[in-house]
Amino acid sequence: MTLSIRIIPCLDVTDGRVVKGINFTNLQDAGDPVELAALYDSEGADELTFLDISASSSDREITLDIVGKTADKVFIPLTVGGGIRSVEDVDRLLRAGADKVSISTAAVARPELISEIADKFGSQVLVLSVDARRANTDSGFEITTHGGRQSARMDMVTWVQRACALGVGEILLNSMDADGTRSGYDIAMIASARAVATVPLIASGGAGNLEDFEAALEAGADALLAASVFHFGIHRIGQVKSHLKAAGYPIREASIQ
Amino acid sequence: MIAILDYGSGNLRSAQRAFASTGEDVIVTSDHRTAVEAQGLVVPGVGAFASCMQGLLTINGDSIIRERLALERPTLGICVGMQILFESGTESSLSYPHGGLGIGIWAGTVNRMLAPVLPHMGWNTTTSSHGSTLFKGVENESFYFVHSYAATRSAGQKQAWSDYDQKFLAAVEDGAICATQFHPEKSGKAGLKLIENWIGSL
């Protein structure tokens, strides 16, 4: 009886399609979100994350519809992030079929949002997306907002500690430097966050080789999020899991069909 | 007909979708009579023990569960919906007038787990009792857990145990009343099979 590490494909959704870019620009089409979600589920994904990167509220309505259609046929946890600013936004997503929500920019602007959401729906519903990059701060990493375009002038480790105290259920640690590059997770960043985080830690940004996933677990991640390596077929989820199993990490192997 | 008890707690739509996927008629209700009469009642629950209990008391859900138990009608508690079947829970207990009392079908207190990283979140396996109805055919599968508190004393007739730095109760089968600490509705095909097993026993 051991808790398995989790492999989480991330689907960036805009205008009803999954897209993927490098460092949050140069977006390429990567497919239909509901079809991709079902495919990843059948391949053994342990959870799914939808990140709504739509610019307009009409696009956000399309995303709500996608969340509902996915939840109708995929019975694994579904996290939805992007543009969440209030308890009401969370309520709408949960009603649409999300199991968890992830917040980022809005929590940096108003940290009390963390405790407001946790008080209303429980900590387990709330993933804090910590979008960080290398910088000259105490820990060597600073927080960014608006998809990595702006510095929040806040140290990453300080923010992780504060967020845990405010009641987040999980931390999604996303390296803005590594995002979409497939050059490996930022291992030093994961280790710095792990040292202070009292909640599960999901590593994100930079997954490329199979060894990259292993290195992130070695640094203390509980779960591994990746997008482009899965969308563009560089690795299948099963390959990643087999590699990690061979390296001695507990993975979920569903035998029931 | 399966009723899912709506007392302001939980992602009810997730539960409704999963239970309905077996082909059963499923309704989400807070109506006393409907909930007592249903062939099977599901008591979901997310968030803190004490706030769930408060929500349950608001719709007299405690008496719904007790009436069903007296009539030997099947009831399934999920996650905090399992925890509130115990005598008490320490989570947020001081914030509410009931002071952390549960329904008290099973003895024991639901305490915070000891692991340094909480919640216990993700897929874990269980060891179920021989002859379990719920786990038939899914004895070796993983299920999805998300919780920071757990019951650690045995309860009911049959138990499933799991482990996260400490041994804790993952499921209880006790005549008409069953409960799981994990979320079968979020546990993929294994979870759907467990739901089918429960529905098959009604």
Describe the overall structure.
The complex is a heterodimer of chains A (257) and B (202). With 257 residues, chain A is of the alpha/beta class. Chain A has helices at residues 33-42, 57-73, 87-96, 105-109, 112-121, 156-166, 187-194, 210-218, 228-231, 237-246; strands at residues 6-14, 17-22, 25-31, 48-52, 78-81, 100-103, 126-134, 141-145, 150-155, 170-175, 201-204, 223-226. Chain A has one domain (6-246): Alpha-Beta Barrel (TIM Barrel), CATH 3.20.20. In chain A, strands 1-4-5-6-7-10-11-12 form an eight-stranded parallel beta barrel, surrounded by eight helices. In chain A, α1 (33-42) runs parallel beside α2 and α8 packs across α10 (237-246). The radius of gyration of chain A is 17 Å and the shape is globular. Chain A starts with 5 loop residues before the first strand and ends in an 11-residue tail after the last helix. The mean pLDDT of chain A is 92. Chain B has an eight-stranded mixed sheet, with helices on both faces. With 202 residues, chain B is an alpha/beta fold. Chain B has a single domain, classed as 3-Layer(aba) Sandwich (Rossmann fold), CATH 3.40.50.
Largest sheet of chain A: 8 strands, parallel, barrel
Series of secondary-structure elements of chain B, N-terminal to C-terminal: EHEHEHHEHEEEEEEEEEH
How many beta strands in the DSSP annotation of chain A? 12
Oligomer: heterodimer
Question: Can you tell me the number of structural domains of chain A?
Answer: 1
- Adjacency order of strands in the biggest sheet of chain B: 2-1-3-4-13-12-11-8
Tell me which protein chains meet in the greatest interface and how many residues each side has.
A-B, 38 and 44 residues
Tally of DSSP helical segments of chain B: 6
Unreliable stretches covering 5 or more consecutive residues of chain A: none
Q: Regarding CATH, which class of chain A?
A: Alpha Beta
The shape of chain B is globular
Rg measurement of chain A, Å: 17 Å
Strand order within the widest beta sheet of chain A = 1-4-5-6-7-10-11-12
